[in-house]
């Protein structure tokens, strides 16, 4: 990759710069070659402007996708593995007799219906036999169990309630109705009214109030959780934060949690959804999505250099000139480019903020104040498929806020035939969302447990929910083996774990500290789940949206005539526009929301 220097910045008030003319010529030449052979496409980009994408996770791949389709020459530098936190992680050495290795995960993939940017990308990734590309590997999640402990009945959303669902199961129906009755009785009517009021207040709050007020109020305070029943705290307050977005309710931004609750409600009503309330993949993530994506991008001309860590940015003349890379052996080199997209996770992106970089854009320094938490996966490989476990299970009262999916109910594979040693019939894939609360076996938080203790603790917490009424769901002989996300590593000297891949979380006031996609450095752009986005949550959707925003900013800065990337926003019911307009007036006048009367 080479850097082009000169006096032209690609700007100009007349809208026709030398860069625009040159780029337009190159783009037109490339367009005459498409569609064509890979060699023809590469030839058409020999004179194209070069982009270094730093990071090959969701944001980096999304940016590379949009850039390569617009005629840029793109190289992706990734330190670890393409796909980032969304990737599959093969358990090396477990495949026998021609079978594939068992598949581990950083965390199972869950696609809420309100995701729109990610599904658009997936439709544009070819997959053999699929008319709609890898998007056709998604299917509706139709069976979810909200599991309680201490003898309380679970609440199940059975397949019969989903479009195309199965036959009525009277035992499931009985358990669900009993569970709903128990929940209704456990939460006082006054607290149910309080929850409804708080939800209505948020739904009718203007953008000004959401950003100016609710962004700075913890979800715990907004929900008036002090002094309320334990069930109100567990269901209405704690689960919506720790269970879904891995952030503690005492510090979670009400703006973010409220927006997610609103999005789930509306998608459940069929509003603003790409398809249903939620979906899952029908195969391991790499097989169903990441590998086809990388193949497609490679075929279009994207270069991938894995095992290369971006260590520093060299600046000069008010721009980024090159990125210093280091490989696993400690060898260093510089890579130059015309444009740079930083798509690294926030805890690593901040390592690039040298004094020289901050001198060009001091606002980036606030990224160092952003907060991360842990949300990592653990897979239990089973000798038999257990009874009484649905596609997805939320262990509502687990100290570690565990959620799980049963892969045999999702994947198109026969486990014993396709994976492992032939003795594994299923996989229970967990997300552990709370690493700071003591568990029930060792009395220690997950951060202080060894890997084996984490596995034993999670198994016990699931049994505490599924077997609290005397039935046997997870007998110990069911367990074949387990696999904990390798990002978690035991540090004996510190008496605890380290996490190589934490998750940025939306704490109160974090919006102001997060960067826009376009920085004050003319050829540096930010992409990642911490960048300001409409979805405003550290998710695959947020990362994808940020990658699109970075590309649009780059197109503007370069003067490119290429079409801008389409971007979707969360659905807002027009029926509430009048109330939101009134709320904006009340907010500017220093008054409460019209419904904020409790």
UniProtKB/TrEMBL annotation:
<dbReference type="InterPro" id="IPR002937">
    <property type="entry name" value="Amino_oxidase"/>
</dbReference>
<dbReference type="Pfam" id="PF01593">
    <property type="entry name" value="Amino_oxidase"/>
</dbReference>
<protein>
    <submittedName>
        <fullName>NAD(P)-binding protein</fullName>
    </submittedName>
</protein>
<dbReference type="InterPro" id="IPR050464">
    <property type="entry name" value="Zeta_carotene_desat/Oxidored"/>
</dbReference>
<dbReference type="InterPro" id="IPR036188">
    <property type="entry name" value="FAD/NAD-bd_sf"/>
</dbReference>
<dbReference type="InterPro" id="IPR006311">
    <property type="entry name" value="TAT_signal"/>
</dbReference>
<dbReference type="GO" id="GO:0016491">
    <property type="term" value="F:oxidoreductase activity"/>
</dbReference>
<feature type="domain" description="Amine oxidase">
    <location>
        <begin position="58"/>
        <end position="555"/>
    </location>
</feature>
């Amino acid at each position: 990759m080479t850097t082009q220097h000169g006096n032209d910045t690609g700007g100009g008030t007349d809208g026709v710069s030398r860069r625009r003319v040159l780029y337009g010529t190159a783009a037109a030449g490339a367009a005459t070659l498409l569609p064509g052979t890979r060699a023809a496409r590469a030839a058409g980009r020999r004179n194209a402007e070069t982009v270094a994408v730093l990071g090959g996770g969701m944001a980096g791949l999304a940016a590379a996708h949009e850039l390569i389709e617009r005629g840029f020459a793109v190289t992706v530098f990734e330190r670890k593995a393409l796909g980032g936190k969304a990737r599959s992680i093969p358990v090396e050495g477990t495949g026998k007799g021609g079978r594939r290795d068992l598949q581990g995960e950083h965390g199972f993939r869950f696609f809420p219906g309100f995701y729109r940017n990610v599904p658009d990308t997936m439709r544009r990734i070819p997959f053999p036999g699929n008319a709609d590309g890898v998007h056709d590997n998604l299917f509706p999640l139709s069976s979810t169990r909200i599991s309680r402990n201490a003898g309380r009945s679970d609440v199940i959303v059975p397949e019969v309630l989903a479009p195309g669902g199965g036959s009525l199961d009277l035992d499931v129906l009985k358990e669900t109705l009993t569970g709903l009755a128990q929940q209704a009785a456990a939460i006082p009517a006054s607290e149910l009214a309080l929850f409804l009021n708080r939800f209505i207040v948020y739904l009718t709050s203007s953008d000004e109030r959401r950003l100016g007020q609710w962004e700075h109020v913890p979800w715990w305070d907004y929900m008036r959780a002090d002094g309320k029943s334990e069930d109100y705290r567990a269901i209405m307050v704690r689960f919506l934060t720790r269970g879904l977005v891995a952030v503690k309710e005492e510090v979670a931004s009400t703006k973010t949690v409220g927006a997610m609750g609103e999005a789930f409600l509306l998608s459940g009503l069929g509003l603003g959804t790409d398809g249903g309330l939620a979906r899952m993949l029908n195969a391991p993530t790499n097989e169903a999505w990441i590998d086809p994506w990388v193949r497609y991008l490679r075929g279009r001309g994207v270069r991938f250099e894995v095992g290369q860590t971006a260590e520093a940015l060299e600046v000069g003349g008010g721009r980024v000139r090159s990125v210093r890379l280091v490989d696993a052996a400690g060898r260093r080199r510089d890579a130059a480019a015309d444009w740079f997209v930083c798509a690294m996770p926030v805890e690593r992106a901040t390592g690039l903020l040298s004094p020289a970089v901050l001198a060009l854009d001091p606002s980036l320094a606030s990224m160092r104040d952003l907060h991360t938490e842990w949300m990592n996966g653990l897979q239990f490989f089973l000798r038999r498929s257990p009874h009484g476990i649905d596609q997805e299970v939320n262990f509502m009262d687990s100290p570690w806020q565990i959620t799980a999916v049963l892969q045999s109910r999702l994947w198109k594979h026969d486990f014993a035939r396709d994976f492992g040693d032939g003795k594994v019939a299923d996989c229970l894939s967990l997300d552990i969302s709370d690493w700071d609360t003591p568990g029930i076996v060792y009395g220690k938080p997950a951060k202080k447990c060894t890997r084996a203790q984490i596995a034993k603790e999670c198994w016990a917490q699931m049994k505490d929910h599924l077997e609290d009424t005397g039935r046997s769901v997870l007998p110990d002989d069911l367990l074949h083996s387990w696999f904990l996300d390798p990002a978690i590593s035991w540090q004996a000297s510190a008496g605890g774990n380290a996490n190589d891949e934490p998750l940025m979380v939306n704490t109160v006031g974090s919006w102001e500290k997060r960067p826009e996609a376009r920085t004050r450095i003319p050829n540096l752009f930010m992409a990642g789940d911490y960048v300001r986005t409409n979805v405003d949550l550290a998710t695959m959707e947020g990362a994808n949206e940020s990658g699109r925003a970075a590309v649009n900013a780059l197109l503007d800065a370069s003067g490119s005539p290429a079409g801008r990337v389409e971007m979707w926003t969360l659905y807002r019911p027009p029926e509430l526009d009048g109330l939101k307009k009134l709320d904006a007036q009340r907010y500017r006048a220093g008054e409460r929301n019209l419904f904020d009367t409790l």
